[in-house]
Amino acid sequence: MAKKPSQPDKTDDEAERLVREGAEKFGLLPQKHAEQPDNKRLFDDLPPANIEQPKQNTLQDIAAPLPDAPVDKKTTSRPHYHGHRDRLKQKLLESDGEALADYELLEAVLFRALPRIDTKPIAKELLQRFGSFAEVINASDGELRKIKFIKDAAIYEFALIKASTKRLLKSDVVERPVLTSWIKVLDHCRAAMAFEPREQFRILFLDKRNRLILDEVQQTGTIDHTPVYVREICRRALEVNATALILAHNHPSGDPAPSPQDRNITRSLVWAANLLMLQVVDHIIIGHNKYYSFADQGFIKQFQNEFERDLASV
User: Fold this and answer.
1) Which residue pairs from 222-230 have beta carbons closer than 8 angstroms and sit at least 24 positions apart in sequence?
2) For the chain, what percent of residues have pLDDT higher than 70?
3) Which residues, including other chains, have CB under 8 Å from residue 123's CB and lie 6 or more apart?
4) pLDDT at residue 126, as a whole number
5) pLDDT tier at 204 (50, 70, 90 boundaries)?
6) Is the separation of the CB atoms in 281 and 295 below 8 Å?
7) Whether the Cβ atoms of residue 269 and residue 235 lie closer than 8 Å to each other
8) Half-sphere exposure (Cβ direction) of 49: Cα atoms closer than 13 Å
9) CA–CA separation, 291 and 183 (whole Å)
10) How far apart are CA 271 and CA 279, in angstroms?
11) Above 50 in pLDDT, residue 256?
C-alpha cells in the first residue's frame, strides 16, 4: 500500500511567522534602505555652468615687468635748477664763454661734480671767499674743502682746468719765436706761477732764433724769498746750448713790485751772462693780476751798459 507524501507541518510555519514578526518588532532584522540616487544622472539634466578656469602663469608672465605705479607729478618733476643748467650751457656754446660771468663759469665747472645740487650759491660763495675765477681754480685743496659740498669730485674738476690751461699756454710758446709772441710768454708765466703759495724762480732757455728750448723751475723758496745761484743758472744755460734767458719769479703776496734783492740778482745775472756770451732778455715778476718787467722799465739795458763801462775801464 503506497505511502502518502507528508504535508508541511502548519505548526512549524506558524512558529516561523511569529519569530519573524517579533524580530521585526524589536528591530532585530536588517532594515531595507531606500535606493540611493545616481549623482551623475542627477546633474546630467542641468545646463553646463560657465565657470572660468584660473589662468596658468607662463615664464613670460613671471618675467614681465610690473605695471607702472601711479606717477605723482609734484614729486617727480625736474629740480628747478635743471632748466637753468640747460640755459647756461646754451649761453656758453653761443658766446664761446665770453658772455658768462665768473660765477656762471664756476657753476658750469661744478655741473659734473655736483649733478644733484644747485651750483649757483656754491659758485658765488667760492668767489666771495677767494676773489676771482683764477684764484678759485688755483686755491689749495685744504682751503677749497672748507666750502660746503666741495669734495674730491669738485677739486678734480678744478685741477683738470688748471692743468689744461697750463698745457695750452705752454704749447703757444714752444717752437715759436718768443720775442714775437711776448704776450703769450706772459700768459704762460701767469698760468704757471701767479697763484703758487711759495716763490718760484723760473728760467726760459732760448736758442739763437729765440725759440724756447726749456722751461725750468730752478728754485722754490718760501712765501717771500727764493735763493738764486748765478753760477748754477749759467751752468745750466751752457748745458742746454742756450744763447738767451728769460728770468721769471712770482710774488705770492700778489704785488709784483721788485725788492732791492730782486734788482741786485738781476744785475748779477746780466753781468755773468755777458761774460759767457749769453743774453738776459728780461726778468719778469709775476703778481696775481699784473706783472713787472725789468726790460720794460729799462733796467736790463741799464745793467748791460754798466757792465760794458766796467769792462772797458779794465
Assistant:
1) 222/198, 223/197, 223/198, 223/199, 223/252, 223/253, 224/199, 224/251, 224/252, 224/253, 225/199, 225/261, 226/199, 226/200, 226/201, 228/201, 228/265, 228/269, 230/265, 230/268, 230/269, 230/272
2) 72
3) 103, 104, 106, 107, 110
4) 92
5) very high
6) yes
7) no
8) 5
9) 12
10) 9
11) yes
pLDDT at 262 over 90: yes
Q: What is the Cα Rg of the chain in Å?
A: 52
Question: 3-class DSSP state for residue 201?
Answer: strand
Burial class (CB in 10 A: 0-12, 13-18, 19+), 294: buried
196, three cell numbers: 703758487
Residue 2: all three cell numbers together = 503506497
pTM above 0.90, yes or no: no
Residue 143 carries which side chain, given as an amino acid letter?
A: E
- One-letter identity of residue 10: K
- d(CA 157, CA 144) in angstroms, rounded, equals 12
Q: Scan for cell 746750448, then name that residue.
A: 241
Q: Distance between CA 1 and CA 90 in Å, rounded?
A: 149
- Taking the C-alpha atoms of residue 173 and residue 280, their distance in angstroms, rounded to an integer, is 18
Only one residue has cell 681754480, namely: 137
Domains in the chain (CATH in brackets) are: 82-167 (no CATH), 178-312 (3.40.140.10)
